[in-house]
Amino acid sequence: MTAFPPELMTEIRNRFAHVDSCPFQGPRIFFENAGGALTLKSAVETSATFAAIPDNQGRDNPAAAALGDIINRAKADMQTFFNADGGQFFVGESGTELTFRLTRTAVTGAEKGGKVIGSTVEHPASRSAARHWAGIAGKPYISVPHDDATGAVTAEAYAEYMSPDVRVATILHTSPVTGIANDVASIAAAIRAISPGAFIIVDGIQHASHGRIDIAACDIDGYVVSPYKVFSRHGYGVAWVSDRLTALPLEQLIDGPRASWEMGTRDTGAYATFSDVVAYFDWLGAQHSSGTEPRARIEAAGAAIHAHEKSLTDIMLHGTGNLPGLAELPGIMILGGPDNPGREGLVCFALDHVPADRIVSRLNEAGIRTHIRRADHYSGNILTPLGLEAAVRVSLCHYNTSAEVSALLAAMKEIAAP
């Protein structure tokens, strides 16, 4: 039993492009959402509209004024979506680029000396940025080990490695390899308890499509997402920064606005397409809540998304009807364990008798899109300690259905057969 009734499921799927077919492959089931979610049709239309507009912001004409208003409205929408109390939002090249930029600003602008801390569970975007700039600034980098069994890192683990001279800390909200979320609020509190002035930057890229972002509930200084992973398009990232992070020396034009993080002319279409994302969450939440405020509806959408995706991953892991779940297949390893409460719409697994690349290929032949994760610079930090050279990532979103999960299980039953 999934969280969305059939009528609503149809409405949801109708709002996304290429929901059940690939323009190159034809009919297919899309379980590669961690690599990039499906795109809202409204975001596609918005992108086309703004791509055709020749005007830029900051000029003395009606078009420029309208573009400025659209950007300001999008920033207000972001404030609502992320539930940020103060600070500011801006867009950049990508989530990775913004993660590097926020980390660079924090490490180089923080008080001299001290340390930088992060964890082994992090995506290389934050780990690479922190280690690179810690080295340049002469600040030792401290690596907090995650729990291989659960795929998570805890506040207690951070606290064990913390010291009062930690200047910058990075946190991964959700792993794109295991799909397991970390408790950002408790980790941030553990950091602040020992080093109150540390700058804390969060990678929210994998988490964003599953909803339930609440910056106000976390005492942090930066939060980054990649909109193409949350129903928008490629070509930009979104960052929130606290006022105290903005108070550090920023890379900017000489004599330009002191508190501005933006460089060059902004892409109004990028901002506008994120407004489409926020409007979608607002609409979905209205189907589950009588709340009159947009934030209340967005919170309702996040709760509904979580419930629906959990129902799908439960089916995927434990089966349905006469179809065994992945956790019941012979020789299976489920990363993070089969019953992990931190799981967000993703199951990563390996079979001891069928190579991961063969599984992905066989599933693709069956019209089911998944992805292989290898023990490389992206995923080696997770896979190598488990003794795995590769694993299969099945990542879903709330527009996926139980029928699609059943098709995966039917294919896997055949693939895994001795």
Automatic annotation (TrEMBL):
Keywords: Aminotransferase, Plasmid, Pyridoxal phosphate, Transferase. It comes from Roseobacter ponti. It holds the Pfam family Aminotran_5. This is Aminotransferase class V-fold PLP-dependent enzyme. The keyword Membrane does not apply. One of its GO terms (molecular function) is transaminase activity. Residues 30-408 form the Aminotransferase class V domain. It comes from the Bacteria.
